[in-house]
Amino acid sequence: MTSESTHRIRLLLHYxxxxxxxxxxxxxxxxxxxxxxxxxxxxxxxxxxxxxSGRTDRGVHATGQVAVVDAPLRWTPEALLRSMNKLLPAExxxxxxxxxxxxxxxxxxxxxxxxxxxxxxxxxxxxxxxVRWCWPLGRELALPAMERASxxxxxxxxxxxxxxxxxEHRGDRCIVTEAGWNRWEPLGVTFHITANRFLHHMVRxxxxxxxxxxxxxRPEHDISRLLANEPGLTTSPPAPAAGxxxxxxxxxxxxxxxAPRGSP
Length: 264
Fold this sequence. Notes:
single chain; alpha+beta; Alpha-Beta Plaits; 2 domains; globular
């Protein structure tokens, strides 16, 4: 909660995850949260705490990470954005800064998150100007088969088979509202998926398994069988972290609405 001397500012962050050991603070490691907090502490000349919408793992990128900071009242969102972008390293950029209600929480108020995964099929995906932000597979895929297999993901399912680790207190079920593939011209294809929540490494295991479907290494119906937790069946190895982007976090209107003046 904010105090009488601070107000909450919502930040939309872009970052190149290849430079960091993930989002979350870790002792003696460079993380996105740590870099952002260090810059804000310098700006405010006081310790600053940033809360994000979720943890991205080492090497995972973002164009839609939402975070909040309780800033001194003298700092407007516009002024804070300008100052942060002057001081942040080149791998982190504040795309937007806006006022947020005092009780807004970027993680607990979120109702959906969307990820995108880039797979490079063309040889030029291996260029140093692309390779850090995709999986440079360099091979053609049977996209129709991958698209058909992806349809099984939509709905309320157990994704235990597609997770490195679950969250025992929250279970392994996720509600996927959309999943599919698009062309990423001229380099390859992208996998897009939106759900109310994601398990650890879930998208990377999904992509690794779907790419094997596209390569003819496994049948399309393996996706449905894995969702059913069929004994003895395992996923393909996870896709590399470099191709994964957190692209959007969705909130209900009431979470971003300010209470009328005078209300508690």
